[in-house]
Design goal:
With about 70 residues, this protein is mainly alpha-helical. It has 3 helices and no strands. The N and C termini lie far apart (about 55 Å). About 0% of the residues are buried. The model has no long low-confidence stretch (mean pLDDT about 75).
């Protein structure tokens, strides 16, 4: 197998640096009615927690999924 050329390595490093500098910013937006009649209370609670930016840890998710 041929080793990559120095130019290829340098280009890959430059691209990796550019990618590392990318910052993705987004705002959370939920447009839902917490009293929506076609969902169950667990769904409403989960959506409300998302809207409130609650800490949805692995423990919380497991509890939500498995009861």
């Amino acid at each position: 197998m041929n080793s990559p050329k120095q130019e290829s390595i340098q280009l890959a490093e430059e691209i990796a640096e550019k990618i590392a500098k990318i910052k993705i910013e987004a705002e959370t937006f939920f447009n839902f009615d917490a009293d929506y009649k076609n969902s169950n209370s667990v769904d409403r609670d989960f959506m409300q927690n998302l809207k409130d930016k609650a800490d949805l840890s692995d423990e919380y998710i497991n509890s939500y999924i498995h009861g």
